[in-house]
Each structure stands twice: as structure tokens, then as C-alpha cells.
Amino acid sequence: MTAPESTDLDDLLRELRRRDVRLAVRGGQLDYDAPADALDADLIATMRRLKPALLDRLRADGGGDDWSVLVTAPTSIGQARQYQITRETSFPQVLTVAFRLTLRGPLDVTALRRALADLTVRHAALRTRFADRDDGVWQQVLAPRPVPLPVRTVPVDELDRAVDEWASLPFALEREPAFRAVLFQPTDGSAGPPVGWHEFALAIHHGFVDGWSAQPMLDDLAEFYRAAVTGRPADLPPLPAEFVDFCRWEAEYLARPETRRMLREWVDGLPAGTVPMRLPTDRPRVPVATDPGGVLHHTFPPDLVAAVTAYGVRRGATPYAVFAAAFVWLLHDLTGAPTVNLAASVANRTDPRYDRVVGVFAQAALLLVPVVGVTSFDELVRRTAGVTWQALARQAVPSVVQIAALGEAFTNFPCRVYFDLLDMADPVLHLTGLEPAPARDVVLAGSRGDLTWQLRPLPDGGMALLIEYAANLFDAGTVAGWLDRYQRLLRRLLAAPDAPLPRAGDAGVA
């Protein structure tokens, strides 16, 4: 079908409605949701030509913003902080949780659309927006509505770029839910889209979801898809709580005298004069908000991971404590700091009511490891393990509250280093009639701190390492050099854990 002969905007909008094409303004861009084959080349050309007028009309109409607000509630402290970072940074996509799934098989797109809508009915966080008011940042749970699922045809060699660009679009956090989905149909030249292959991508702002939410979310989506395909009701028990319930509980928890006492005892137990460490940088420090970030991928071989595990079993320590202890010694060697400060992601789902709830429960627990007087790797592992267990005990306390308890020296401290080991299985989507689809992270521009090391076990016994670093502070070669030193240091420490700890100038380490 050809585009409307008239270029009049009203005629175009009528034609789009007739073809069931839905328009929206997202992050200042024109987005659309359309059935397959609804848009031909002529109509797309007309939309492009009239794009300014379309944007003006949609904005004048509220940008499609006719949401009904069901609940207005306080945010969690972590939510408010992530909203603030998004507003301040030049790379708001750094706080977008995005992943893609390769769907192979006879996909029912209509059923997937219905499943997405049902998913947002079940999980209110996926239909929640922020409200920036005079009395602070609040969250507004909106009434359910269909979730747009655009279907876009993309050449195979442009697929990765298209996914990255789509995931990088900023969210309109104060206007609509920070949750979107898209289906890409890869094409290979004149042959057209391969039968039975779609690339499904999801993007959610980190203010509404964490990594532990991914598998429950995909499980529920699969069940709603099965129900849509078969015509039978979804077999899901009611959720015992919602994310806003957690936010209210957090405020009550932080006001308790025992919570304040726990924080006071933690701070009082630190060595006198504890201050943040400072990593050496290749360039003067500038605000992290302007940093595009850099990424480095590495794999620790199975024999090294097995050695870490075996050592931990003998010493009664977790693999995380062993890996982290070696990292602590590397940072001490780089900075000379008597106390090394790290941040570690913790699930913060100690209440079983929230096991299957989509939301941002995870916290960044602070680990402050004193290294003065440590004489061996055995002792350093014990000390790191003890600090880690203490951090888990206060995992319900947001990092900004922990930092405030540490006092003025840590207020706006510049050096943020994260060290995580994600020992949960990668999320997988099991849609009826299709092959299992593992979720793959879409790594977007931006750096949430100076340095982030994220370990993830591999099926072959190895360990994947993703390093994100502040590219405005460090050269790629500097970070790669630290990684090389770390791996050689770890092997040496495991070989002689009761020997004196090596320094940077020792053979085989520097």
C-alpha cells in the first residue's frame, strides 16, 4: 500500500491509525509500534518528512501522556540516587539495564505483545515513573496499558549497532515508565528476513530493576506467553508484596534505633583516621558524569579458578573472599592506602516476600579492609572474609547512608571501586515452541565509578571478567597492566599463602 497522497498531517495520522501504528515520543525521539509489514518504504519516508510536525503534535497532545496514576509513594533511597545520577550525567544510559535474546522458532508476535502487557500488570515497577516534586523525588505507579513492541527490519551486519542505539535512547523518567521492548528482524540481502529468527531486546532503567529481577521477569513473561498462545489462564500465584512495600519498609528500617546502632558500631570499629584510597590516574580527575567509560573483557582459565576454589575450601572461605583479597592487595600496592575501600553488589532480598518481585532491591555494600599489619595471604583472606560478612549483615542499608555514617572524609569521595562476583545463572527465556533464549547484556557507554570488576562463572569452569573503567582517568593500557599484575599476583599468593605478602617490585609480580 502506498503512502497517503496528501501530505497533510491529519491524513497521515489517520492512515497510521488505520494500519494500527502507534506513535510515542521517547527521549525526544519519535518511536513507533507497528504490526509486521504495516510500514512500507513510502509511508516511512512520509513519516520522516513530517517528523517535526509529528513530534510537535504528540507533545501538544501530551506525548501520549494520558497515564492514570494509581499510587504515589516514596522512592527507595537507591532509586532517588539513581534518578539524581541520571539527571546529572552526560551518559544516562549507564543506568539502563538492557539485554537481548535471540528467539528461534515460530514466534507469535501478537502473543508476545499480550504477554508484555500482562507482565506490567503483574509487576508494578515496570509501569512506574518518577515525579520530581518540591518535597523530593517520588514514584508514581501508573494504570496498566499495552506495551509497544515495534518490529524493525535490520540488515544482519547492522544488528549489533541497531540494538546498541535502541538501548542507548534515554528514558523520559518523569513522563512514562522506564521500560521498553523491541523485536528486530535481521535480513540478509535480498533474501529477506530468515524464517524463525527474531532478536528481542528489553531495556529498563536501573531505578526500577536489578540483576536479580531478570530471571523472575523472564519466567513470568514466558508463562504469560504460554497462556496467550494456548488460550489457557496463566498459572502464576499472586505476588505477596510489591516494590513500593519495600520502599516503605526501608524508611522504617533506617529509622530504627538498632539500625543506627549497627552503623555506629561499624564506624567505631574502623582504624582511627580511615580515609578513602586514591588510585593513581593517567589524567587529572574530572567529574565522572562526563565520562563515556571503557570496557575490557578477560577470562580466567579453569585451572586458576579451580585453585581459588580449592584454597577457599581448605581455609573455609568463599571464592569471592579469595579473589577479593588478592584485589585488595593489588589496590594497596597501587595506592599505599592502609585501608582499602571497595563496593560489592548484594541482593538485599532477605525477605522471601520479595523473591519474585521485579524492583531494585540490590545495594552496593561498602567493604573497608584494613591491611596494616597483615603478614600473609592467609591472614588477608580471613580479614577480607570477615569484612564481607559484616557488609552482608548491613546489606539493607543503602550505600549513601553508609557513606554518610563514615563522616566528612567520605562525603563525595572521588574513588569508587566495585568488585563483584555474580554467582547466579545467566537469565534464560523459555517461550513455548521456541528454543531457550539466554539473555545477553547490552554493554552501554558510561562508567558508574573509577573501576568496576565483575566476575561471572563460565560453564567450562573458567571465570569471565568484565572491567569497566573511567576512560577520562585511565588509559586502556594502564587497566590491562593492572589486570596482568593481578592474575600473576593471584597465582603467586595461592602458591604460597603463608609466605610474606609480595610487593610490586618483587619478581614475577610487577
TrEMBL record:
Organism name? Micromonospora sagamiensis
User: What is the name listed in the Swiss-Prot or TrEMBL entry for this protein?
Assistant: Condensation domain-containing protein
The biological process GO terms on file are: amino acid activation for nonribosomal peptide biosynthetic process; lipid biosynthetic process; secondary metabolite biosynthetic process
What positions does the domain Condensation occupy? Answer: 74-398
Task: Tell me one Pfam family matched here.
Answer: Condensation
An annotated GO cellular component: cytoplasm
Going by the entry's taxonomy, the superkingdom of the source organism is recorded as Bacteria
Span of domain TubC N-terminal docking: 10-58
Q: Which GO terms describe its molecular function?
A: catalytic activity; phosphopantetheine binding
